[in-house]
Amino acid sequence: MESGLSEIGSTKMFDGYNKRYKHNSETLGCSMTFSIYFPPSPSSSHRSPVLYWLSGLTCTDENFIIKSGAQRAASTHGIALVVPDTSPRGLNIEGEADSYDFGVGAGFYLNATQEKWKNWRMYDYVVKELPKLLSDNFSQLDTTRASISGHSMGGHGALTIYLKNLDKYKSVSAFAPIANPINCPWGQKAFTNYLGDDKAAWEEYDATCLISKFNNLSATILIDQGENDQFYPDQLLPNKFEEACKKVNAPLLVRLQPGYDHSYYFIATFIEDHISHHAQALEL
């Protein structure tokens, strides 16, 4: 299948451009959209490092671009923001849109093993297909210098993808991540349906489990968590991840932010800190 990459939107912002693209994904077997913020470039030969942003449940590639205000800091630091969608779309699998926390808009950044959901391979899409598509088509991006971040389900995606691919990403950060999905309702529902009953397979997509195996980190993990987040006590479990990091001396900074909730107001408040964190790791 040809990638059929086409630009479907362009808007100037902080002297750079938000651009939106559509392509045929071989990994997912459907047409996908993604967004890139290209920072202003000092010269035509200059190549910007990349920060991947993975969004949360129900989101598309547009939420972060529209709501986070991340472009201001990305423009200042010269970092390109790459924002994929959160699941395959348009496949019309029975039940794919029945609930907000499973199926469409809820890919959980894993490779499903259950036959019905075999197209849900967002892990391979983010780790393999998308970076190759970028390096093949955008000479202004330096995909060898990359970091990863995300929110909620996307925070889970960022942490797990980073830990399993320490050679591919310089740093990770997350806002209110689902940090121990095997022990929360969201994770249990998704993993049962995508991965079946094999609990060992579940652990391969749980940051709290993975940190015991993959902890030779070159940069501190940064997590921001709002204390007024309705999902904090039952779904997110950052304390479990913190305990697991302590056991293996993995460098972690968890900042509990009083009064903040789970929304993009919270993300917009602290996104500049996260981009600075990645700029340092990317040696900008």
Could you please describe the fold and organization of this structure?
It is found in: Cytoplasm. This is S-formylglutathione hydrolase. Serine hydrolase involved in the detoxification of formaldehyde. The active site is at residues 152, 229, 262. With 284 residues, this protein is of the alpha/beta class. It has ten helices and nine strands. It has helices at 62-67, 71-77, 122-137, 153-164, 185-195, 199-203, 207-210, 232-236, 238-247, 264-281; strands at residues 6-13, 16-25, 30-38, 48-54, 80-84, 141-151, 172-175, 221-226, 252-257. A nine-stranded mixed beta sheet has the order 1-2-3-5-4-6-7-8-9, with helices on both faces. A hairpin with a 4-residue loop joins strand 2 (16-25) and strand 3 (30-38). The radius of gyration is 18 Å and the shape is globular.
Query: Could you tell me the radius of gyration in angstroms?
Result: 18 Å
**What is the topology, as strand order, of the major beta sheet?**
1-2-3-5-4-6-7-8-9
Structural class by helix and strand composition: alpha/beta
Work out the strand percent: 15-25%
For the largest beta-sheet, the strand count, sense and barrel status come to: 9 strands, mixed
Total strands: 9
Distance between the termini: 37 Å
Count, helices = 10
GO molecular function: carboxylic ester hydrolase activity; S-formylglutathione hydrolase activity
Protein name: S-formylglutathione hydrolase
Function: Serine hydrolase involved in the detoxification of formaldehyde.
Pfam family, one: Esterase
